[in-house]
Amino acid sequence: MVALSGGVDSSVVAALAFEALNDKAIAVTFDSPLTPADEVEDAQMVAKVIGIHHQVHTFDDLKNASMIANPPDRCYHCKLARFRQARVLAVKLGIEAIVDGSTLSDEGEYRPGLQAIDELGIISPLREVKITKSEARQLARELQLPVADKPANSCLATRIPYNEPLTRDRLSRIAAAEKAIREIIDVDVLRVREHGNLARIEIAFDKLDLIQQEKVAQRIVEELTALGYEFVTIDLRGYRFGSFDKESSQKE
Fold first, then answer.
1. Is residue 57 within 8 Å of residue 29, measured between CB atoms?
2. pLDDT band for position 250 (cuts 50, 70, 90)
3. Beta strand 53-58 with 190-195: parallel, antiparallel or unpaired?
4. Where in the chain is the domain with CATH 3.30.300?
5. Where residue 245 falls among pLDDT bands split at 50, 70, 90?
6. I need a surface site. Which of 75, 122, 157, 238 has the fewest CB within 10 A?
7. Buried b (16+ CB within 10 A) or exposed e, 107-140
8. Is residue 55 classed exposed, middle or buried when 0-12, 13-18 and 19+ CB atoms within 10 A define those classes?
9. Architecture of domain 156-234
10. CA atoms within 13 A on the CB side of 63
11. CA dist 43 → 7, 15, 46, 53 (Å)
12. Phi, psi of 18 (to 5 degrees)
């Protein structure tokens, strides 16, 4: 069983699993309030291209008090709950091994979820053979996967400061804000970080001029204020990986 998120790394694992095992491999995607809708769509597209059997299961992270509290180690609680559910599914299907797309690069970042993966005995084949994220992307190109050049994404919880409660309404509003911005401008990397009723937009540094054009900015402000944001700002530092992390050694 491959935990398929729709990103580059897990797509590579799914493709190689199907190449090695054919119909003995299955991909599973969890659709939750924390998951951007296009991630599930990408997982479905990739599975179809690969030919691997694919199941999408609804999973409500917001039934987990540890996730609602949104602590700095939220990724640990998330992975623990999701992979426990994956193990239940695996037992029902008579599957012995569960694999994910973690890479060697993840060990150099703040990834509390790796502890949960290790505790549950989930196999990370790319990580085990010391393949980095850049090498996984190159493999994706060689395998001609449609997500080979897809920018990295993260769950919607990463848009909310640590220790501020996660709610369905906040997550839905953030998802709607990012969707609205993407419909106005063409950006690869985008995060709408939420500070109460202030939306802080992070995009690639080389796109800052585009988003600050008067007509573009006006449209974005109109869309986001309609969603309930009182203030709409652009982070002049551009997109930063894990910008809510309190220490530079802790990245998400």
1. yes
2. very low
3. unpaired
4. 156-234
5. low
6. 238
7. eeebbbbbebbeeeebebbbbeeebbbebbbebb
8. middle
9. 2-Layer Sandwich (3.30)
10. 6
11. 7, 12, 5, 11
12. -70, -40
Q: What is the DSSP string of 215-235?
A: HHHHHHHHHHHHTT-SEEEE-
In which residue ranges of the chain is CATH 3.40.50.620 found? 2-142
Residue-averaged pLDDT of the chain: 93
Mention every residue, 6+ apart, whose C-beta is less than 8 A from residue 116: 75, 76, 77, 78, 79, 80, 83
Task: Report pLDDT for 240.
Answer: 81
pLDDT digits (tens, 9 = 90+) for 137-161: 999 999 999 999 999 888 999 999 9
Q: Is the pLDDT of residue 243 over 70?
A: no
pLDDT in tens, 68-127: 999 999 999 999 999 999 999 999 999 999 999 999 999 988 899 999 999 999 999 999
- DSSP class of residue 214 equals H
Q: Tokens standing for 48? A: 């179809």
**Exposed/middle/buried for residue 197 (C-beta within 10 Å: 0-12, 13-18, 19+):** exposed
CA distance 116 to 105: 17
Which CATH number among 3.30.1950.10, 3.40.50.620, 3.40.50.2300, 3.40.190.10 corresponds to the domain 2-142? 3.40.50.620
Tell me: the pLDDT tens digits for 207-230? Answer: 999 999 999 999 999 999 999 999
Residues in the chain: 252
Q: For the whole prediction, is pTM greater than 0.70? A: yes
DSSP 3-state helix, strand, coil percentages of the chain (rounded to 5)?
50, 15, 40
